[in-house]
């Protein structure tokens, strides 16, 4: 079912001027499928498999083919003792080699003992896990950004609805005052004040519409959705429900902490890889070669042309024992150790920060819930005051100033309530994040 929804959203999102009814869950699933950050994190996981294969290749045989062709226009002359040829006391000039030399062969090298290779193989699993955790962290970051922007879009849209409603109500008052003015029952200044009020409301409405467009564009960007797509957010997505009390979460289960611990593990392997330079290296080599020499171009030539071909092979062991490297290895080991200790300080600081995030989120949840209750009551009272003031104005028991003040108070109360609910929802996302449960939003 989830895949069907995502595919439907993708097809709608790619259609110009399409309209999509977007719940928070749908928005998050769409973002995880389409946002570049999420895609790149998954590509890093895929790339980690290739990095592991590269490390493993160092433990496998390395086979290379080789070939060469050399022409010697002037052969080197060597001077040798004539006593070897029955001419003691003389020197003989002898020319060695042939004008043409050609060779081809296959060489094999197999590491028998290389501590850095063994360390790399042990680090391969940690490398894969590091990128998997990083992928999970990226998904959580995408979820957090989309959720916060999703709620912000809703708030801006609610402000437009409120301004539209206020404009309609003010227009009704304008019509009443206009009728009174035409009948000589109201002053010109009263009518002008209503006109100014309507103009201010219209200006505010245009500004909020611009803010809505900018906020919607930001939401679509964080989702990876085409900007021209029209989105509809259901009303129930913005309900504030009191959060249940929970135990203090174990920050060591948070993705941010796990990623740092895995990074620490990789740095330890890195240090061991540098320390491996203290160890000797032993490798097996083997080769088989074929060589041709003669005064003529050797390829396809025969002994009748003075060109002779012969093969040779060899098998050997290579041992390299480090004795003194100018303290370079020691310096690199110490640098790796400093990197580990630096990261350990980051881990301690992150642990404190994650604990602080949870406690701050709980405090914000509690404070915002109280604010919501207060603002809901204020909104109810402001609505009653506006209704009573409007009736009194029509009966001549209240001034126009009282009516305008009541409208302003009612509008401000509704704005404060909507803003309080937004703050609560953002604090709710922060609380879910602090508990390491952001992915529950997509289930």
UniProtKB/TrEMBL annotation:
Signal peptide residue numbers: 1-18
Keyword terms of this UniProt record: Cell outer membrane, Membrane, Signal, Transmembrane, Transmembrane beta strand, Transport
Compartments reported by the entry: Cell outer membrane
Keyword Signal recorded: yes
Gene3D superfamilies per record: Outer membrane efflux proteins (OEP)
Record bears the keyword Transmembrane: yes
CC per GO annotation: cell outer membrane; efflux pump complex
InterPro entries given in the database record: OMP_efflux (IPR003423), TolC-like (IPR051906)
Molecular function terms from GO: efflux transmembrane transporter activity; porin activity
Family to which this protein belongs: Belongs to the outer membrane factor (OMF) (TC 1.B.17) family.
Protein name: Outer membrane protein TolC
Source organism (scientific name): Flavobacterium cutihirudinis
